Automatic annotation (TrEMBL), chain A:
Organism taxonomic ancestry: Eukaryota, Metazoa, Chordata, Craniata, Vertebrata
Protein name: Ribonuclease P/MRP protein subunit POP5
Cell location: Nucleus, Nucleolus
Listed InterPro entries: Pop5/Rpp14/Rnp2-like (IPR002759), RNase_P/MRP_POP5 (IPR016819), Rnp2-like_sf (IPR038085)
Job of this protein: Component of ribonuclease P, a protein complex that generates mature tRNA molecules by cleaving their 5'-ends.
Gene3D superfamilies assigned: Ribonuclease P, Pop5 subunit
A GO CC term attached to the entry: nucleolus
GO molecular function ontology, one term from the record: ribonuclease P RNA binding
From TrEMBL, chain B:
Transmembrane domains' residue ranges: none
GO cellular component: nucleolar ribonuclease P complex; ribosome
GO MF term set: RNA binding; structural constituent of ribosome
Cellular compartments annotated: Nucleus, Nucleolus
Name this protein carries in UniProt: Ribonuclease P protein subunit p30
């Protein structure tokens, strides 16, 4: 049995103003990536990008996206990603840049990495908390993901609690 | 694996913008950044070399690097844009205030001089216009032997399509000659949105004609050797370093007024009496 191999890029969308992340949807991200690839690599790139490229997951709270590229040409397509400066959605331009965090062969490995990464972010958030209430919430979230690391269901909860902090 | 470095963040007088630049760099996982002061001497009038802003002025607490528990390290760097050989004064005391020293030559002759004789750490490759000369083997080999690095910055490529062409063209012609050795990739970012993550830059090296290993080294270990090269520049064979302590003594004097001036032997005598 041979399966069709892909590469999943786990990217973080960095924006100056976090509240604008909610405007994003996966179609807008896909269009931005396709436009960047076409701009950088011309028709050849656009052709490669039309084969198996898709946006697999988008978390509008934390600004995390999973991009799927064919394994054969993912490096070429990836080299166009740094040239994305804005994403157009619903008639608005969101200035942003994509920062690749992890490259994985399956969604599963990417998800494992993301759980680890989000836990790390909680730890980074703790010293920055301003009020006591926030602090206790973050502490609780850290504790929760320490106890149930690796459990898929808890992962959803954990990332939710992180989002509460960021607003 | 070595840590990631970005040796070129453009200085701007706006403190909050510089602060957010450093914060973004820490978020992206850069352990060391250098704030770049550009100095462009012109023939008409004499200009002052800019003095670096002490980093303690800028922010009280440096942000912690992503994935590490240490705060980010911020260096100062001076780039002299050379259009004449007299623009670089090797003994200028102003240069000593900077951690890193870079030169951007604008002609072939100056490029040769920069590679072979000048006591610097980094040679910037122009990315905003077409290169007026070809790279030759001899000066580049000389620079590689002396441990001087070549720098390609990518922020201009992100800003504009024409610049992108120049950047890629100049970078590729450099890589052809130096075969990926002693090359560093840095941002030259003016805004936080022009910074990119270390893995993205590594992959960007592919466009510039670097191999996988070389482009990874271009953001990590080659940068480290540039910083170490800069440190050895002010030392005797990299072993002894002299610094003026006059700024330290007044603080010591404040606490115990008389004793600190006297050497240890005399101090003991005073106590005996």
């Amino acid at each position: 049995m041979v399966r069709v191999k892909s590469r999943y890029l786990l990217c973080e969308i960095n924006v100056p103003d976090r509240s604008r992340l909610f405007l994003l949807d996966d179609r807008a991200v896909a269009a931005a990536v396709k436009a960047a690839v076409a701009r950088m690599h011309g028709d050849y790139g656009a052709a490669l990008c039309s084969i198996r490229f898709s946006v697999k997951y988008l978390n509008a709270h934390t600004g995390i996206v999973f991009l799927r590229f064919p394994k054969k040409c993912y490096r070429l397509l990836w080299s166009a990603l740094p040239f994305i400066t804005c994403i157009e959605t619903r008639g608005q331009k969101i200035e942003c840049f994509l920062n690749c965090l992890h490259v994985g062969g399956t969604i599963r490995t990417c998800q494992k990495f993301l759980v680890k990464y989000n836990t790390q972010q909680l730890h980074r958030m703790l010293p920055k908390c301003k009020s006591e209430e926030e602090r206790s919430q973050v502490r609780e979230a850290i504790l929760k993901c320490c106890l149930t690391r690796g459990n898929k269901q808890e992962f959803g909860e954990e990332s939710d609690s992180e989002d509460d902090e960021e607003q | 694996m070595s840590v990631f470095m970005d040796l070129n963040l453009s200085f701007c007088a706006d403190k909050s913008r510089l602060r957010s630049l450093i914060e973004t760099a820490a978020h992206l996982g850069f352990s060391t950044v250098a704030v770049n002061y550009t100095f462009e001497p012109t023939a008409k009038k004499k200009q002052e070399i800019p003095a670096p802003m002490p980093i303690t002025d800028l922010m009280d607490q440096l942000p912690v690097v992503q994935g590490r528990s240490r705060p980010i390290r911020v260096l100062n760097r001076l780039t002299v844009v050379m259009s004449d050989s007299s623009h670089f004064r090797p003994t200028a005391p102003e240069y000593r205030r900077f951690d890193l020293l870079a030169v951007q030559p604008t002609s072939e002759k100056l490029f040769h001089v920069a590679c072979m004789t000048l006591d610097i750490d980094i040679i910037c490759i122009t990315v905003t216009e077409k290169l007026p000369f070809f790279f030759k083997r001899a000066p580049i080999n000389g620079a590689v032997e002396r441990g001087v690095m070549f720098e390609v910055s990518y922020a201009a490529a992100i800003r504009d399509a024409t610049m992108r062409r120049y950047t890629i063209a100049n970078a590729t012609s450099l890589m052809e000659t130096c075969k990926g050795k002693n090359v560093i990739l840095s941002s030259a970012a003016e805004k936080p949105l022009e910074l990119r993550g270390p893995y993205d830059i590594t992959n960007l090296g592919l466009l510039f004609g670097l191999s996988d290993g070389d482009s990874k080294e271009a953001v990590s270990s080659t940068c480290r050797s540039a910083v170490l090269h800069a440190e050895t520049r002010w030392t005797a064979s990299g072993i002894i370093r002299t610094t003026k302590t006059c700024s330290v003594t007044p603080i010591q004097q404040e606490a115990p007024p008389e004793e600190s001036d006297a050497p240890a032997a005399k101090k003991a005598k005073l106590e005996d009496e």
